[in-house]
## 1
Amino acid sequence: MSGSSGKGEGSGPTRLSQVGTDTVVAVAVDRAGGAAVVRADGSDVLIEPQRLALELGEIERTEHPRWVWWSIDTARTLVDLGVRPARCWDLGAVHRLLHGGWRADPARVWAVSRGLDPATVPERARVDLFTAEEPTGDDPAVRPDGHLAIEWLDGGWATDLDALRRHARLALDVYRRQSDALDRLPDRPGAPSTATSESAAELLCAELEHDGLPVDVDEAERIVGSFVGPRPDTAEDERQRIHDRDQQVLQNLPAHARDDLDLRNPADVKSLLRRVGIEVPDTRAWRLEQLRHEHPIVAELLRWRRAERIATTFGYRWLDEHVDRGRLRGAWSGADGAAGRMTATAGLHNLPGELRPAVAAEPGHVLVRSDLGQIEPRVLAAVSGDAALVSATRDDDMYAPVAGRLGVSREIAKVAVLGAMYGQTTGRGAEALRGLERAYPTAMGFLTAADVAAQGGRDLRTVGGRLVHLDGSRHDGADDRTERSRAAARGRFGRNAMIQGAAAELFKAWAVTVRAQLRELGAGEIVLCLHDELLVHAPETRADHTAALVDEALQAAAARWQRRIASAVDVRFVTDTAVLRRWSDAKDPLPLPR
DNA sequence: TGCGGCTATTG
DNA sequence: CACAATAGCCGCAG
């Protein structure tokens, strides 16, 4: 599948508009204005707003197309309408894959797809000064200089059907160009496959935002209350609570020393500790933990920190803001700016362990929790093609054979492997690192190559084709030592991005495979993605079925993902899957219903 | 009001 | 206390 672009008429390449055997249609939709669907053969369907759900649903059922759209905004609108397509192509997501970075607004995606300098993309304010530059060409959405016209520039989305049809046609044009670019990417034969799974992941994000994570609100309130007391009735009440909690710590000091001490100010905490004879370079919890027995105020302080954290970040205000009708909802992103992991707001990705009992299946349902075991070292074996490391992945615990080969304990082997992937050069794993170099030279060479390239400020690409941009610019006035430390940091970042990024691609391939199969079988819905862990909310009666589906989906996704790698290898990936009532029940799973 | 530093949580 | 993320509060510069 190479990009033989035929003779072009006008400007665009005329490559066949298909991914595999997919039928491709572009869609532009606006809830108030309707939708335009444009097929690859140029035919189109215009849909009035009141018939959106009906007709879009009908196209999905009868044509089963791959839907092309500009960004996750379209996915959100469709999900909102109750339309959940099986397959899609998200121009914004593919743009980020091909070109890196975070910004993927239509004006930018369009410009870059046509080889225009993104720095010349006009901004709204500038365009206003040059109204003479209003579109005059064949397509009123495209300016004479090749950039998208004013209607696109500030998120403005024209809502009449003619404009929507133009948006869809232009989307199809960008799709063809992106598809070509992916086919031509050197040494990344899997890039087109990454593009479709990254697109589906973006759609999954829209669904996660819509569906939310099931929360037992009473339990959540109970847990928050156990840290910070009952809900304050008034603002004054709340201030009093905060004061009381502060005094609980400060009463350990003589009265005259309590004033002017702010527990929220690290410098004040240092001087507080100095008063009781404790000198510390910083006041982080792990450091204070070791001094717990030195003075009673240390334990009080740690307890205060815990409560303060719940009160400020995961307290009643957090519940009120993010939990609605029993679901915790946040904004999801399919790929962060660095290596391409999914991200989420509203605490979905950093919920403290104490709050996990509040994440619970609804009546008649269960949570199927599944996580990938040792995903990063397994991914390292796959992307580097290191035969010895690949054979270590046959073990359920791949650190065991590594430890055996190195002649060190499992713990040391683990620290060394993780250290190699993070770029650690000192500490306990440092000596074992030399052993790794001898035993797994191909894997270590892969990491070193990424490190060296990144130190030099050269951009990298993950095995799936994601561009990881590195800023190699020198800062004026930075001395040699500073510059060396910046280069080293870039090296660690680049080395890790190749692993974390590839792992994120595998994870998303798994997640969207699970999504597709759940959809077909009505066996539940994904409610959380957590880097290497999936949470599926499933009907109780399908619990064992759903658990099996999740495991089988990994094998299918991992096989497809490995076929993306030029030096195809056979790494074993493993899951740990359990059926639970509450997220916290991981240690005590439900027996599967017979 | 915006930003860097510090802190805490997660994978 | 390496790699990544979100998020709160504080002090300080503008």
## 2
Amino acid sequence: MPELPEVETTVRGLEPVLQGKRIASIETRRPDLRRPFPADLRQRMTGARVTALGRRAKYGLIETDRGDTLVFHLGMSGSWRLDPAELGKHDHLLIETEEGRRVALNDPRRFGSVDLVATDRLNEAEPFRGMGPEPLGESFEGSYLKRALAGRTAGIKLLLLDQRIVAGLGNIYVCDALNLAAIAPGRAGGGLSLARLERLAESVKAVLIEAIAAGGSSLRDFVQPNGELGYFSSQWRVYGREGKPCPRCAAPIRRRTEGGRSTFYCAKCQR
DNA sequence: CCGACAACCTGACGGC
DNA sequence: TGCCGTCAGGTTGTCG
């Protein structure tokens, strides 16, 4: 489930393998994921040195000394495998360093993507142009939400999933943050008080930080015999827990579908 | 602006 | 054992 915490953890897992290292080879094993791989990927990446790894929203960033940043998205099913013993049919991109370390981007559903963007124009380039603030950044707070949501009648859950409002939240952590903040997912965004939005922003940060910490603590497990680097299991508050007790008030968690996606919430304490 | 829906693609799971 | 329907983290686009 690659949401922001999973991407953050993935990037941290790639760091020891790639940071500061020269790319000996980069190989695509099919022409595309969601989009075609960049035509000049090989030419621009081969021989380049990785100068930084990072994350923006749910995208991972691999920056090189040639002024390029490789931007990857894990879609619904993507993960990186570290030093895979052998390649499987869903290992679509392979990077090998001069030291002989290998990382493979694995993505069965192929909803992910790989793009090459000029580093100095990263924020103006797709897909980052027009994106809202990072949910873990300083500017994401109650007063920002008050401004961004003014006049909006859509449900707060849908609005939090809008990357132009805040960049990097997905279905799982939106459900969990709304539970922690005791806010009903269908509440009109524009009608929430500043006090409740302050609590919401804090709740968003709290669930993300906790999930990243859980991923970090399982990082050592990433380089297991299977070499997989990607998801970690986490203690979700409400997501995927229909019928189980709400962590706030013990009432059974409910599930509702809106916009074709499941929302998990507590009808008793989320108002 | 809004909500609903479909599309992209594969695999896991439950029911029969 | 197998077949078939349903569902899943995200993004992007259309429609009314």
